[in-house]
Amino acid sequence: MMNTPQQVKNPSTSLKSRFITRFLGALTKINAEDPISSPSPTRIFQRYRRIKVASNKSMAYSVRSRRIWSRAMLSRFRSRRSAFSGRRSSVKTTNCTTINVTINENKTAKGGLDMQTDELRELVPGGEAMDVCNLLDETAHYIKCLTTQVQVMRKIVDFCHLSK
Amino acid sequence: MEKDQVFMGEGLNRAAAVQAGWNSCSFGMEMETDELNCVGSCFLNPKWHNSMDQSDPFESALSSMVCSPAASNAGSTNFPASGDNTMMTDLIGKLGNICNTGDISPQSLIKPPNNNNNCSSNTSCYTSPLDSPPKLNLSMMGGNQILKHPSLVPVSADPGFAERAARFSCFNGLNPQVGVTEAEFVQLTRVSTNQSIMVTGSQVHVPDSNKNTLQDGNSCSDKRNSRLSRCSSPENGDSKDESSISEQIPGVGSSIKAQNDANARKRKSMPRGKAKETPSPAAAEAKIAEENNKSTAKRSKQQNDSAKAENKENPKPPEPPKDYIHVRARRGQATDSHSLAERVRREKISERMKFLQDLVPGCNKVTGKALMLDEIINYVQSLQRQVEFLSMKLATVNPRMNANTEALLSKDMFRSRGSLPHSHYPMDSSALAFGLRYQPQQGLPMNNGISNDTQIKFSMNPANAALHKTQRLQLPPVDGISDANPQIGSFWDDDLQSIVQMGFGQNQPQSCQSKHS
């Protein structure tokens, strides 16, 4: 999946390159703001959370608004930003639950697959408001982006380990 | 994404086929001849997709047309081979004959070809034993569309129609469909007259600009030509003629049913199917939108059945693989628009499932939607956990990064693009100058420590048991930390502290090492 045309293209325009650029920038920023001088677990945990959010955000921004899941993720970040740091995207989820209920009610045709479909909806950002067809589409793209993320982060970690 | 594009291309082909106006299916005429494949080529244009979306209901009706054989062949080549061309020519000729008689302005399109024989299959659909060639303009158009030759055989004599029809049907082996009843024919003719205008209207001819053509409203018959062009794929300038024909025909076919509502419903389902049809020949070919009365449906069912049976596996039998999105009521199945739409939807979903199967490793052996979905869910969960795990790793082992490091990393990543994950890159000596201070002896153990210890400890937690579904993950979801589970929290704290201290090599209290087991 890493060999999609998007990534085989010119590095400067591929999804991977965009993600790398953004994520590395975010990492540098995080490291600058929060130097790992204090090994307290809480600080580490906070840092971990920041890095995780930065990773997801970088990927979402790299995809921009071309995908439903990226749009959902971006709006989630924005709502988070406006909310307190401790508050998660509860606002968004509540809005989506109603939609989810409606959609599920209409999906009697799937029968036994509703459970898995619901699970998938929870996993894929913005999946609550999608029909099954789009959900599968978004899942495919989301998987592709996730693998890119994992790959890049692994490389970074390896690099850091190697550079000891 | 490649596959998406392929899907679209295929969908376009199918749509084109439908557009080919082979709604003549109403006559039980399934344009599944190879000649019709040419029409499919018209739909290779990706823009078709967009245009399809904007097309008016007639488009959808047209989508019901069958252009399978031609479409499939043309799909890859954008135009039928020479052999097909001949057939197409014949077909178009025949169709032209039919259409010529009608008010089809594109007389130019309908040239008096000599190839009425082969095209009979197509034309037969439209040309019923009755003589009302004038009414079969649409069908003619379809024929024109299919054939490269803009000239179609002008429908001269009605008697010829029946003959052609017979030939045509035989051509496809669609003998059953030869039996276009007079009533149907009459219907068709009536419809054709009514629909021709509508059809043409929807198909404003704009070579290579399907979008625009679709937008145009109903126009006069002179727009039929545009219809032809509408379907044309970019490669085929001539295809436009073909497309318009095919487009017109479906319109006629749908109208034949004399139930515009039903048609409209079916048309609606068609665009969906058209737009999203996957390349899989099985799915694509099997669908033929049946927007016409049930009699036609039955007739087409026969064809469809054979087509489906063959196409499902690996097409190329008497009815060549179609890339068009045809949804036709199968034998013994309901023919109402709801079932058809449902079928289209199911096909789309199965196509996407297949695509996901390729994406998710290890899914080839899994059969069934439920298991596939389970695998997909597991995979997505594992990927998300991996991201969390790696970000945790980064949080602990990445104290310093400056611009140089970032540049180096970027360079490495770009260089190693496409490589499998988790490969060690050659360390540049310059990297050491970046101030990454790790103690090698401790860095590695730390890495292993995290995975081993945390894994062990987390595995004790029943809550995390379910998370060990996949093998890839070494560390259970870090979210467990945020669960405020005191047990886990304490474990994590101890390990984390020791690990961090070891990793940084700055503070290495002996107590930490003793704690770290």
Automatic annotation (TrEMBL), chain B:
Pfam families for this protein: HLH
GO CC annotations on file: nucleus
GO terms assigned for molecular function: DNA binding; DNA-binding transcription factor activity; protein dimerization activity
Entry keyword Amino-acid biosynthesis: no
Entry keyword annotation includes Nucleus: yes
Biased composition (Basic and acidic residues): 307-324
Compartments, as annotated in UniProt: Nucleus
Compositionally biased region (Polar residues): 202-220
Highest rank taxon of the organism: Eukaryota
Signal peptide: none
UniProt region (Disordered), positions on chain: 202-324
Domain BHLH: 333-383
InterPro entries, per database record: bHLH_dom (IPR011598), bHLH_ZIP_TF (IPR024097), HLH_DNA-bd_sf (IPR036638)
Official protein name in the record: BHLH domain-containing protein
Native source organism of the sequence: Gossypium raimondii
The organism's taxonomic lineage, starting at the top: Eukaryota, Viridiplantae, Streptophyta, Embryophyta, Tracheophyta
